[in-house]
Structure formats: structure tokens, C-alpha cells
Design brief:
With 25 residues, the chain is mainly α. The protein contains 1 helix and no strands. It has one domain.
Length: 25
Amino acid sequence: MRKEDKRKHLLHEEQQRIDGAAKPK
């Protein structure tokens, strides 16, 4: 995995975590 891809993936996971915390199901 390229470095940029890994960073983008981590950002995406972090965003999902924030979204989940902001609006619980």
C-alpha cells in the first residue's frame, strides 16, 4: 500500500469513528 493511500485510509477510518460518535445509530 502506498503511503498516501494508507494515510487516506486512516483518515477515512477516523472520519467514520467521528461520524459514529456524532450520530449514534
